[in-house]
Amino acid sequence: MKRIMHIILAVAFVATLSTIAVPHSYANCGTTVALSNPTAGAGGEVAQSVNLPAGTVITYNVTNIAGGNTTMRYSDFGALEYTIYFNQGTTSTPPQTAVSGNYTAATQVSEVKIVYNAGVTFDGSVSFTCPGDIIAPLSVFDGRINTNYGDSNVGILYEGTNGALDLYRYETDRYIAGFITPEEIEPYQSNPPAQNTLIKSTGIISVYILSNGQIQFNFGPDEEGKTWVFVMDDLADRINEDSYYIPPPG
User: Fold this and answer.
1) Domain locations along the chain
2) Which residues pair with 20 in a beta bridge?
3) I want to staple 52 with a disulfide (CB 3.0 to 4.6 A). Which of 109, 132, 206, 245 is the partner?
4) 211 vs 88, 190, 216, 231, CA distance in Å?
5) Cα(197)–Cα(211) distance, rounded to whole angstroms?
6) Least reliable range by pLDDT among 18-32, 183-197, 219-233
């Protein structure tokens, strides 16, 4: 009897407007998930929801395969699925107890899973290497927080994980996950500093805690001397009514 298990990458299409290289926050970039079935029994699947961009290199490593000799073949279900099969094999196929390889996702990936037949056991892991530049919509509706305040040429704030804010920095064309976190703000929440205090900076982007407890992001000055000051009551503030623009001197 042929025993089969396969990895399925479920993907979702993302509609875009005009695009630029602006990475977004994808929670599973640079991580590894375990997908194992240590106990023989009925067929089934082990699955993990993920959030990964198109262009991610997905590396799989399945070891300690038991339940029959194995071979591997690839089956590409258009742009919607990529399936890796591990088959029992034939008398002409040398026994295999491990398989590994990688695949570059053509679209955004939302799930990885290994589906297996009865009697098959294995230890598996799947790791994700995201591209350095992720194509994202050039649109004020792409989730950016500091719209009209330096987001066109200096930096873009995005909502991160666990209450943090992420930053895309134009100058280096890089995305910084967890640029500013609640843990960095917490010491000042009930005890604002006596004077405005710089707590973090990268390039021409700086973050201050103000004496009134607000959080201020300075975007600039840019090459023309322009600076955008983006002020938040806290990291969850989306009104930002105290923000303002500083024109070039002269």
Assistant:
1) 5-129, 143-246
2) 136
3) 109
4) 68, 11, 11, 13
5) 8
6) 18-32
User: Among residues of the chain, what percentage have pLDDT more than 90?
Assistant: 28
Label each residue of 140-169 as H, E or C: CCCCECCCCCCCCCCEEEEECCCCCEEEEE
Rg (CA), the chain: 24
Enumerate helices (H) and strands (E) in the chain, giving the number of each: 1, 19
Look over the chain and give the mean of its residue pLDDT values, rounded to a whole number: 75
CA distance linking residue 21 with residue 130, whole number of Å: 13
Query: What is the Cα–Cα distance from 87 to 154, expressed in whole angstroms?
Result: 52
Cα 242 from Cα 248, distance rounded (Å): 20
| Strand-strand pairing, 5-12 and 108-116 | antiparallel
**pLDDT at site 82:** 56
Q: Is 218 left (phi over 0), alpha (psi -120 to 50) or beta?
A: beta
Q: What is the pTM of this model?
A: 0.48
CB 100 within 8 A of CB 86: no
Report the run of H or E that residue 197 belongs to, with start and end.
strand 197-202
Task: State mean pLDDT over 202-210.
Answer: 95
User: Largest Cα–Cα distance in the chain?
Assistant: 83
CA–CA gap between residue 97 and residue 199 (Å, rounded): 53
Here the tokens at position 94 are 């040398």
Using pLDDT thresholds of 50, 70 and 90, give the confidence band for residue 137.
Answer: very low
Alpha carbon 12 to chain centroid, angstroms: 15
CATH of domain 5-129: 2.60.120
